[in-house]
Amino acid sequence: MHGNESAPAGSSGAARYHRDLARRNREALLGAARRLFLDLGYDGTSLAKVAAEAGVSRATLFKQFPTKAELFSAMVTTSWAIEDEQAPPVPGDPVAALTTLGTRYADLLTRPGMADLFRIVIAELPRFPELGRTHFDLGKMPFFDSVRDHLLAEQHAGTLQFEDADLVTTQFLGMIANYVLWPRMLLLDWDPDAASVARAVEEAALTVHARHAVPEESRSASPR
């Protein structure tokens, strides 16, 4: 158990040790909480089960997360974490750029357990209405913003033309989510392979381009 480790001598070493220990305990608790909440649901998961699964004491758990609601909220928040901030694509080739952005979105939506996370958040919305906003803000909005910003950059570059960037972004991400995520919510055997997902993303990018591309001969006259 994490609590059995001994601290190094010296005040600075001890402080660093306790910070590292608290971080490791938190990571262990959130990992255990994710496994149990997704397997057993909110009501079926107790704090005692989470502490045992994480290999920490109940006192350590309560110090980090005084209530099950706080632990659940933290678990949902960390499930959407993106490890590395990726650079936005350069305007000029809308299909390639949208395919890159769409692939990043599809990769997130097809993470192991993501459909289960959606199911449990939807099921617990009456109990935790704020989690719906958290789920949306941390999950979809970063990708929504990146796609909308790129569409506007393409419009400024004269390669695409549209009236409502928010609507085009919603349509693009919706085409991807409607293939890689939402069928999983109802069909437990829905599991398209990587090539099929890649094709769905590329088709979404091609659809946006076919609808909104500015013809080559008209680009010099397009507003920038």
From TrEMBL:
<dbReference type="InterPro" id="IPR039536">
    <property type="entry name" value="TetR_C_Proteobacteria"/>
</dbReference>
<dbReference type="Pfam" id="PF14246">
    <property type="entry name" value="TetR_C_7"/>
</dbReference>
<feature type="DNA-binding region" description="H-T-H motif">
    <location>
        <begin position="46"/>
        <end position="65"/>
    </location>
</feature>
<keyword id="KW-0238">DNA-binding</keyword>
<dbReference type="Pfam" id="PF00440">
    <property type="entry name" value="TetR_N"/>
</dbReference>
<dbReference type="InterPro" id="IPR001647">
    <property type="entry name" value="HTH_TetR"/>
</dbReference>
<feature type="domain" description="HTH tetR-type">
    <location>
        <begin position="23"/>
        <end position="83"/>
    </location>
</feature>
<dbReference type="InterPro" id="IPR036271">
    <property type="entry name" value="Tet_transcr_reg_TetR-rel_C_sf"/>
</dbReference>
<dbReference type="InterPro" id="IPR050109">
    <property type="entry name" value="HTH-type_TetR-like_transc_reg"/>
</dbReference>
<dbReference type="InterPro" id="IPR009057">
    <property type="entry name" value="Homeodomain-like_sf"/>
</dbReference>
<protein>
    <submittedName>
        <fullName>TetR/AcrR family transcriptional regulator</fullName>
    </submittedName>
</protein>
